[in-house]
Amino acid sequence: MTEKPVIEFKQVSKKYPNGTVGLKNINLKIPQGEFLVIVGLSGAGKSTLMRTINRMHDISSGDILIDGESIVNLKGKGLRQLRRKIGMIFQNFNLVNRSSVQRNVLSGRVGYYSTWRSMLGLFSKADKQKAVEALQRVGLGEKLYTRADQLSGGQQQRVAIARAFMQDPKIVLADEPIASLDPLTTDSVMNDLKRLNEEFHITVIVNLHSVPLARKYADRIIGLRGGELIYDEPIEKVTEADLDAIYEPAVETKTVKSAEGTPSEVIS
Ligand SMILES: Nc1ncnc2c1ncn2[C@@H]1O[C@H](COP(=O)(O)OP(=O)(O)OP(=O)(O)O)[C@@H](O)[C@H]1O
Fold first, then answer.
1. Does 46 contact ligand 1 (Cβ within 6 A)?
2. Ligand 1 midpoint to CA 22 (Å)
3. 116 alpha carbon to ligand 1 midpoint, in Å?
4. Hey, what domains does the chain have and what are their CATH numbers?
5. What pTM does this model have?
């Protein structure tokens, strides 16, 4: 990789307070503008890995660099600035149901306002216009004044994408963004994410259970198992057999391609 990574994991491990291993010695470099899909069985550590990037989870050892700077000890203003440049999309959308679509989308902007201004909803004219454009970008321009809970699941997720876009993020993390959606809606949500990635060079990291979708949208696929990085390949090199191996039940010794392309033994 010649481009400087926007995100770098250096020997990152995470143990939860109850002793469960979330991540084990992860080394990973993600360049700006990549569409990275994380796959793996349930409990493999996909959400944990994603949530260490915006410090929703703290790590136990190692280091995580964003734009070349360690984020693991950030506090206060530094942490707020980090989170401002990282948008997050959740499986269950995380909208304020009783608020309008406009208010939900504008809330993506709160990192740029003082607490009292954002609590009073005192957003600038420019940001209100930006919200309209963000909604138009996801095909929901006419829903500005609709209450969030009057939208379908797919529409709610697209509002969440518009909200993330309002942050002017460098990175968008999408944690199983399509798990609650039907197949048709799934494509529109994935296409919205891909557009953000391609038009604005935003780094997008998505956790997916669907192998066909991972193949369709990813620039690169990484696989986790038991908190370990067991697979890391650009999409051109990904084979069905590789993906099958990642998804085989964790009962026996497997050989899976490693980041360097050399086979490594994985004992589950
Ligand atoms: N807050 C927590 N406390 C203790 N253990 C946790 C916590 N969150 C996750 N774990 C454990 O850490 C491991 C990794 O979980 P994680 O949610 O990252 O997996 P995942 O690959 O995202 O799974 P899924 O696809 O089911 O969402 C699992 O064994 C899980 O039970």
1. yes
2. 6
3. 36
4. 1-85+172-268 (3.40.50.300), 95-168 (no CATH)
5. 0.90
Take atom 24 of ligand 1 and give the residue whose Cα is closest: 42
pLDDT by position in tens, the chain (length 268)? 456 899 999 999 999 999 999 999 999 999 999 999 999 999 999 999 999 999 999 999 999 999 999 999 999 999 999 999 999 999 999 999 999 999 999 999 888 777 776 667 678 899 999 999 999 999 999 999 999 999 999 999 999 999 999 999 999 999 999 998 988 899 999 999 999 999 999 999 999 988 899 999 999 999 999 999 999 999 999 998 998 888 887 554 444 555 444 444 433 3
Alpha helices in 86-182 (DSSP H): 101-106, 115-119, 125-137, 153-166
Which protein residue has the closest C-alpha to ligand 1 atom 1? 16
Asked if residue 47 has its Cβ within 6 Å of ligand 1, the reply is: yes
In DSSP notation, 10-62 reads EEEEEE-TTS-EEEEEEEEEEETT-EEEEE-STTSSHHHHHHHHTTSS--SEE
* Nearest Cα residue to 70 out of 111, 12, 24: 12
- Pocket of ligand 1 contains residue 43 by CB under 6 Å: yes
Indicate which residue's Cα is closest to atom 26 of ligand 1. Answer: 42
